[in-house]
Amino acid sequence: MANVIMASSPKTLITSSASPTPKPKFNAPQLSLPKLAMPQFAKPQQLVSISTSISAIVAASLSMAPPSLAAEIEKAALFDFDATLPIMAAEFLILMVALDKIYYSPLGKFMDERDAAIKEKLSSVKDTSAEVKQLEEQAAAVMKAARAEISAALNKMKKETQLEVEQKIAEGRKKVEAELQEALANLEKQKEETIVALDAQIDALSNEIVKKVLPVS
Amino acid sequence: MNVLTNTLKGLYDVSGVEVGQHFYWKIGGFQVHGQVLITSWVVIAILLGSAALAVRNPQTIPTGGQNFFEYVLEYIRDISKTQIGEEYGPWVPFIGTMFLFIFVSNWSGALLPWKIIQLPHGELAAPTNDINTTVALALLTSTAYFYAGLTKRGLSYFGKYIQPTPILLPINILEDFTKPLSLSFRLFGNILADELVVVVLVSLVPSVIPIPVMFLGLFTSGIQALIFATLAAAYIGESMEGHH
Question: I need a labelling partner for B238 at 20 to 30 A (CA). Which of A55, B49, B132, B154 fits?
Answer without folding.
Answer: B132
